[in-house]
Here is the input.
Amino acid sequence: MAFNNKNLFITLLSLCTFQTYAAQCTADTFAKNKLNNFILMGQQTRTEIPKSVEMTIDSPDGYLRASAQSHFTQCGELIGSSIKEVKTSTGPTKNVFTATNEVRLNRTEFGWRIQMDANGVITDNVSQKTTQLYRQTLEGLYQLNNKGFISHAANRSIIAATKAGDKDETTVGTIDYVLNSSGLLARAVNKGSMAINNYTIVYSYDGNDRLIKTQSPSTVEEYAYDNEGRDLSLSKTQTYFTIEKNLTTCETWNSHGECTRANMDIMIVPVDRTGKQYVDKHKAVMTTKYEYWN
Here is the structure.
């Protein structure tokens, strides 16, 4: 699995079966599935089509725990996916903040349905009282055009009220995907009812059509490859209320050139209640298991 963990890296619950046979897989079919998988998972497919991919991320200090699973047809189409990520951190006051994110993708007749659930709570170190900081759910659909490519996505999100007297807030958004002259994803144009949801992600490639950079107003990702063309490293800088920098470096690959074990260096620069920044560092290990059709 590529480093992008949209991401991380979204994966599959095989709730439906779309049985296909290799003899029916044309070059056009492989090309469509490759592009659609990249849009859905941020992953550029290599030469061999996986049947399933399982990924885990684990921090020795307990900061990050993540797991993901995905399954594909013999033609390389994503059937569905699921990912769960839990981050646990302790601030200067020793209160514990826990952020849980879950994502599910499933193939439907018209594209892929996405469901997301984000939840954040803080626990007082003395009283052990837990306070809900945020809760957001999202449902959407990645839609296929008449050529079989994902060209548009639409979503609806509910931000739950966390204080007495407040009301839930509903937002809507769309994403339009723009290809370059080589048929590669060039831009993802996001539009939404909240100002923060209006932005564009720009994708850059090298002379071998390998992704080398993605950039949006809040996030920059840069990819590097070794002399054999395998994934070597991913550098990610994300700026919201805090600054988070991640460097993921692969150390082992399988016979198909896919990274199976990588080390992660994580640095977060939050702000305390006085407005002063401090640095929080963590390490993690990402392991990925591939099962192939052939």
User: Anything to note?
Assistant: The first strand starts at residue 50 and ends at 58. The CA atoms of residues 96 and 153 lie 36 Å apart.
